[in-house]
Amino acid sequence: MLFPTIEFGIFFIIVWVVSFLLRNNLYGKKIFLTIASYFFYGYWDFRFCFLLFFSSTINYIAGLLIEKLEKERVKKSVLIFSIVINLGILGFFKYYNFFISSFNNLIFKLGFTNGLPVLNIILPVGISFFTFQALSYVIDVYRKEIKASESLIDILLYISFFPQLVAGPIVRAKDFLPQLSQHTPTSIKYDRAFILITTGLFKKMIVANYLGSLLVDKVFDNPAEYASIELLFAVYGYAIQIYCDFSAYSDIAIGIAYLLGYEFPKNFNHPYRAESLQDFWRRWHISLSNWLKDYLYIPLGGSRNGKLNTYKNLLITMLLGGLWHGANWTFIIWGVLHGGFLAIERFFKEKFFNDVYHKKTLIVRIFQIAGIFHFVCFCWIFFRSNSLENVFSYLKGFLNFNKQITILSPFLLILIIGGIASQFVPEKFSDKVRGLFNRLPVIAQGIVLGIYFLGLSILSSEGVAPFIYFQF
Amino acid sequence: MERKYCYKDVIIVIIIIIFFTLFFNSKGYINWAINLKSVVFKKIFLNILTPVDKIANILYLDSIYLNLRGLFLSLIKDRDKDKSGDIPLEKDQEESEINYSTKNPLKIIMLGDSMIKESISMAFLKLTKDNKELTTYVSAFYSSGLSRIDAFDWFKQLDSDLINKYDFAVIMLGMNDAQDIIENDRRIILFTEEWNKIYKDRLNLFIQKINSNVKKIVWIGLPFMRDKGYNERMIKLNNLIKEECNKYDNLFFLDPNKILYNNEGYKEYIKIKDKFVQVRIYDGKHFTKDGAILIMEELIKIIYNSFKFETPVNINRSQMIDLIY
After folding, report:
1. Is A387 left (phi over 0), alpha (psi -120 to 50) or beta?
2. Is the pTM of this model over 0.80?
3. Would the pLDDT of A118 be above 50?
4. Torsion angle of C-alpha atoms A216, A217, A223, A226, degrees rounded to 10
5. Torsion of CA A41, A46, A47, A51, to 10 degrees
6. Surface-to-core class of residue A6, CB atoms within 10 Å of its CB (0-12 exposed, 13-18 middle, 19+ buried)
7. CA nearest B323 in A: which residue?
8. Measured between CB atoms, which of A438, A451, A466 is closest to B20?
9. CA distance A154 to chain B (A)
10. Closest by alpha carbon to B233, among B193, B279, B176, B282?
11. Rounded CA gap, A152 and A131, in Å?
12. Calpha distance B264→B270 (Å, rounded)
């Protein structure tokens, strides 16, 4: 069930009305939202629900054991056991075929004729997201940052809560579980919710879908057929497409959570106006960046054990961050490129620019922003391509100077330029729009939103493309 | 300062939004309801939406919506079709007598849905980009098929596509067709006797229209699908299409399941020359570029075996496989 569909609209209205009726029955509301979340997930494939339940239950029990047991060594064993189970599930569904086919290809080259079996595994939607949420819960309990939840329903709801279940943001237990014991507020942040939902739908249904179907998919599928300028704009187009697609999902998820009386953390903050790659990762997929920092980079040693170890930790963190996105060498190289550049950037910053870093002129800042944007775009070529061969043929395609421009249209240019320009809109603008909206009477607000939704439906592309991050 | 909203406010806003979207886009909602899998839900929603649609018709609300949408889509029209070029109008070619060459190329038309648009035509054009003795025109439309000609009328489309004469047609249709047919405001349930008859009639009409314009047709069958229920429907439909195709001497039914899977069932990866190759994309429906190339290899063999060319062309499997890696 995708957000911008009639099915989801009906589902959400039912969920919202029932949760409103249950607003004074805290436990009843939690049970209902859990059932609704499992229904939402089972809509893809009901078998996935068993996996979600199994993962939640294991982490619930692990959390309780870690808190109740006294010996540190035993606590650690329980933590390791739960991490192994979580990563085992993720590894089996997501990486089994990748590693087996890579291994088989290697042994065939060595002359063996029989390889290990490749299984027909269906990747459960959102498995990477809910596994990371589950891991954050047990690790936080072990670190004593939160108390283990006594309520199984709280953990079931935390891991399965439908707005963020399949594509984030990755919500921490310490941010979400306390909200479950608070009564639903009598007033709702509906203005914030609707602004997030409407901008999210615009980004997904108009910008991302058109850029994907009219430009990016075609050029990336067959780079040799298109002119070099089209290849360049297809990369810019993909940068905007993936931002609009993914941030749209986060915006809609946060908006839906607001309507149900919960708050999720912000997941994007104008990433393409970053002045350094480190800054980019503070603005792009913030919940994943924070997760990787807290549960991978810092446990690896972070920046505590000297410069070389810091660079190594950055590289490892980003490599695994790349692998988290999918079982493909293209993602691994994407992660290595980011990790490597982060390390180089840190080296230069510490060595040469430590003092001048905060005294930049506008020109320097513009160059930095453009430079980082182009580096990120270059890395997107790896991220978007299906294989390394595709990457090479794409890069080779930049030399197609003699080809005529065939698909780049003014409409696509408007989407790309508008998408880049939107990164520089001041944050106060959104508050101003909200202020204006709030001044309208409720019926006028309804009419404005009704016309807006109608406009979206008129302008949207045919069919509903799945969100890009569903595959991760 | 934050304005406080109560639940009643939100309910009012949601009702107004539903009113706008429902009345202006009633046809879109009806189409959605028709495509529902559950017969019960389909009936419930159609009972609600049909009177809404009637009111929207009387007030011309749906035509406002459709006109605005049509205007916008025409402004951003996909330029792909223009790219395929104009095929000169020629008449009365005699199949066996003609030696096709770069000066007199074999004219191919590819017709179909997203399968043709997204993978098959792209793979074919890639494989034959240096074969100047072939010219290809692609007419493919997302979500199109023969069940819902009220949504997209392939017969009208053929009238404009077949203004020019072609030598060879490649068709792949059906993945959007496992749904009820609406005829004369009546819903005919999928795979009932009546549905089968109507669908067969449309298939035959479709083939005959093309047949009068080309010398040979290849119909690419439907591949196995990942989703179990969808796969079962596709297998049924594939058998029906195959049965009708077999009635035509100059029509060859190319079965992708035989080529990719040896009829063993859906797989995302297959083994070729000791390497694992991904042949289907993550949606479990469409082919990857490599999957499409493997099917196009067979198609190209058929082309070069069926028509005479001035310079004989050797098609060899290892060349094709090399393209994949």
Report:
1. beta
2. no
3. yes
4. -60
5. 30
6. middle
7. A389
8. A451
9. 25
10. B176
11. 17
12. 11
